[in-house]
């Protein structure tokens, strides 16, 4: 797997430190409240596990799986729910936890959808954000790292379902995509 990597953008130590800072901010912002944190499968598994263990705010964890209809590699913003929440979000403070925000279209839809179900608030936390995300009107309250517009893997992110288990975030050598 080492031969497939080009560059490490975020080390495991950097991610751990940054998630600690984000958790402190989240604890301050939700002081006196209870949270429902919602992980978006499958990429957000690592962030959910690591961020949740740094939070002191009382919380419950739930999961959603969504798929975006799109042509080719670009998401269209039309979303299908593959696995819905087990919890009712009405009246609850929801924090959506994501691995990466690229176009932001999926999250924009998800935020509106959960607000539509009567959530008291719906905020977003993401480990990574790409520049495109700035173009969409989605308010991301907590961002780990802003990264360049490159395809990255690791820390939950995959290429063809591989590399999710890398503890850091990195880019791949061109030969990987040519196989
Ligand atoms: P969007 O923000 O609606 O475009 O969708 C973002 C989703 O696309 C993320 O949750 C990832 O699953 C996937 N994605 C976007 N950029 C990357 C990347 O660089 N590597 C791996 N997956 C990515
Ligand atoms: Mg994802």
From TrEMBL:
GO CC annotation: what is one? cytosol
Pfam families on file:
Pribosyltran (PF00156)
What is the name of the protein in this document? Hypoxanthine phosphoribosyltransferase
UniProt entry keywords in alphabetical sequence: Cytoplasm, Glycosyltransferase, Magnesium, Metal-binding, Nucleotide-binding, Purine salvage, Transferase
The protein's GO terms of the molecular function aspect are: guanine phosphoribosyltransferase activity; hypoxanthine phosphoribosyltransferase activity; magnesium ion binding; nucleotide binding
Where in the numbering of this chain does the Phosphoribosyltransferase domain appear? 15-159
Location of the protein in the cell: Cytoplasm
The question of whether Nuclease is a record keyword is answered with: no
Instruction: Name the reaction it catalyses.
Output: IMP + diphosphate = hypoxanthine + 5-phospho-alpha-D-ribose 1-diphosphate; GMP + diphosphate = guanine + 5-phospho-alpha-D-ribose 1-diphosphate
Give the InterPro entries listed for this entry.
HGPRT, Hxn_phspho_trans, PRTase-like, PRTase_dom
């Amino acid at each position: 797997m080492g031969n497939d990597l080009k560059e490490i953008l975020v080390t495991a130590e950097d991610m751990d430190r940054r998630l600690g800072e984000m958790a402190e901010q989240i604890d301050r912002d939700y002081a006196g409240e209870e949270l429902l944190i919602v992980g978006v499968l499958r990429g957000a598994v690592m962030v959910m596990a690591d961020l949740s263990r740094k939070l002191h705010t009382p919380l419950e964890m739930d999961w959603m799986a969504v798929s975006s209809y799109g042509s080719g590699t670009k998401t269209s913003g039309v979303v299908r729910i593959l696995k819905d929440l087990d919890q009712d979000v009405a009246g609850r403070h929801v924090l959506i936890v994501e691995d990466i925000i690229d176009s932001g279209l999926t999250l924009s839809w998800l935020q509106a959808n959960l607000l539509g179900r009567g959530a008291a608030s719906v905020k977003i936390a993401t480990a990574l954000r790409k520049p495109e995300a700035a173009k969409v009107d989605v308010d991301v309250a907590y961002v780990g790292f802003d990264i360049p517009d490159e395809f990255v893997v690791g820390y939950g992110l995959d290429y063809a379902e591989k590399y999710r288990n890398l503890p850091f975030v990195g880019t791949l050598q061109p030969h990987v995509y040519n196989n």
